[in-house]
Design goal:
mainly alpha
Length: about 100
Amino acid sequence: MIPPVHHAMTCEDVEHVLWLFLDDELDAPRRESVRRHLAECDACRGYFSFHRVFRRDIARVSQPIDVEALRARIVRALEAEGYVDPSSHSIPSER
């Protein structure tokens, strides 16, 4: 439930609209109410910070992976450690 426009946000209100706030989907008056509450409430500011970082990290993970580039980096790392013969790219059974 989105609280009324001219209503001082409570911690519970902020919790309910935080994702809308993070996604910039609140109207200007409600956005300003959330900002005012976050400026005054350490607990909600911490909650907001956690979810902002969480959202950013999830976005990073969901980026497409270049499988061939990843494979090449893994092979180079294995070669550097002596696990892979650089000429054959085969992994020896023992080191």
